[in-house]
Amino acid sequence: MNVSGEFTVNAPRDVVYKTLRDASSFVRFVDGVQDLKEIDPTHYEAVFETRVAYLKFKFAVTVEVTRADEPSEIEAKIEGTPLGVVGRLTAKSITKLEDAGNETKVTYSVESTLAGKLGSIGQPVLRSKAKDMEKQFAARLRAAFAEGKPEA
Amino acid sequence: MIPFELSEPTSLAAAVKLLNPDDPTIRPIAGGTALMLMMKAGVFNPEKLISLRKIESKYSSISADASGLKIGAMTALGMLERSADVKKVTPLISRTLRTLSNVRVRNVATVGGALAHGDPHMDLPPVLMALGAVMTVVGPNGERKLPVEELFAGYYETVLEKNELIAEVHVPAQGTRKGAYFKVTTGSADDWPALGVAAVIEADGKTVKNARIVASAATDKATRLKATEALINGKTVTDALLKEAGEAAVAESEFIADVRGSVPYKRELMKVYVRRAINGALEGKDGLH
Ligand SMILES: Cc1cc2nc3c(=O)[nH]c(=O)nc-3n(C[C@H](O)[C@H](O)[C@H](O)COP(=O)(O)OP(=O)(O)OC[C@H]3O[C@@H](n4cnc5c(N)ncnc54)[C@H](O)[C@@H]3O)c2cc1C
Questions:
Q1: Chain A window 112-151: which residues touch B at a Cβ cutoff of 8 Å?
Q2: Whose CA is nearest to atom 13 of ligand 1?
Q3: Residue-wise pLDDT tens for chain B (289 aa)?
């Protein structure tokens, strides 16, 4: 499945880039990411958990930043193993940053697949969750720069 | 599998008391056909399941009178399918059930489970919504009436509190209303649908007096197509109006892709099958086998 969109942030491009590229601050913008560990500057491990009704979807994920063109583009590969069952989540994300006057336009696209036992149950749930996560991601990132600088 | 506790209360009221509004790991279990799949997929690890199998037998029965049907939530779908009362009072339900999964599932799965599960791919909810069915929901503070059309909040999500149970479903008699359900499958006829469209229409010949049209499976919850209904209400159905109705249905729906079809594909299905469902209801061709 593909999720893509764009939004603008009230901050210069190099500042937005640094914030997105800094894993510890990036995590604050994505709902459901916990226990982030930096393995090296391009590899990370974390736990991703999301809930729908009484159901819980939990994955151990690894993130590899496969390309980082400062200050315009970040490409990452995400692999996840659902905790407790056989299956695999794979995703590739591309985030592009462009100047838009005093602001920065963020364009993102995430292509993901969910295979194994979770496929038919989880795919539509993740899709509907992705909509909320996108909205939150944009809102949190914008809020962080609302004063023109990222939160401490 | 993770061990869990199983309670088997002998009354609905006792079952309600065992549920906890704040604890999602305590769930009611009816036929178990849907819940077990969630457990096997590892997305639900219960602490405790409250089985409804031993509650009062009236909740596993069907009764009919002039106003319609009263169906207990624990009634198996197979019983509904074979009931002479259901065939007489709401023939659309009997026909829908024949392509709902297979006889093994229908003999175990219940009406309450089919509603509370909240998977938009289910066949019964759109048909019950189109017929105007209303549930009796029981919670710690007594009972309330909830129209089926207000039950769904999103994919797997309903407006029921965690300590509320569906007790019964009341379905108004079909009477002179004409109904059709089109289950569009991309696999076998009894597969999960890529799109479900139910239409229940009161008409005078080809002139629509009142229509209720519901789409499911292509959307993240079963949804009444109110703009489409408004478009055809009071009008005489022609090919041009049917075409417009198909387009109105597409315009008012939010589609979801799944293994049974992409969004553009489901849009096309909706355009065609809303047309067929309206026409089918009016002409007595219900698209079922
Ligand atoms: C192989 C297979 C194929 C299928 N194909 C189809 C198909 O083609 N079309 C279709 O429509 N369906 C299909 N189904 C789904 C089937 O209809 C549902 O699994 C079934 O209706 C659920 O009923 P249940 O009694 O088994 O519910 P359970 O699995 O016991 O429960 C389902 C959910 O409802 C809750 N619940 C149950 N009863 C109540 C109640 N009274 N009040 C409140 N909450 C309650 C449970 O807590 C749980 O969350 C298929 C299922 C299987 C296994």
A1: 117-125, 127-128
A2: B101
A3: 678 999 999 999 999 999 999 999 999 999 999 999 999 888 899 999 999 999 999 999 999 998 999 999 999 999 999 999 999 999 999 999 988 989 999 999 999 999 999 999 999 999 999 999 999 999 999 999 999 999 999 989 999 999 999 999 999 999 999 999 999 998 888 888 999 999 999 999 999 999 999 999 999 899 999 999 999 999 999 999 999 999 999 999 999 888 888 999 999 999 999 999 999 999 987 666 4
E-assigned strand segments in chain B: 5-7, 26-29, 48-51, 62-65, 68-72, 134-139, 142-147, 152-154, 157-158, 165-172, 178-184, 195-204, 207-216, 223-224
**Which amino acid makes up residue B115?**
L
Q: In ligand 1, which atom is closest to the CA atom of B38?
A: 29
Taking the model in full, what pTM does it have? 0.90
* Dihedral sign from CA coordinates of B173, B117, B28, B151: negative
- Integer Cα distance of B251 and B243 in angstroms: 13
Structure ipTM over 0.90, yes or no: no
Nearest to B277 by CA among B286, B268, B269: B286
Q: Is B218 in the pocket of ligand 1 (CB under 6 A)?
A: no
Q: Which residues contact A127 (CB under 8 A, 6 or more apart)?
A: A1, A3, B256, B257
User: How far away, in angstroms, is B108 Cα from ligand 1 center?
Assistant: 9
Residue of A nearest to B158 (CA): A53
Distances (CA, A) of B240 to A120, B156, B246, B250: 38, 37, 10, 16
Residue pair B182/B285 in contact (Cβ under 8 Å)? The answer is no
Contact B258 A128 (CB under 8 A): no
For residue B31 and ligand 1, the question of a CB distance below 6 A is answered with: yes
Query: How many angstroms does the Cα of residue B75 sit away from the middle of ligand 1?
Result: 12
Residue B180 identity (one-letter amino acid):
A
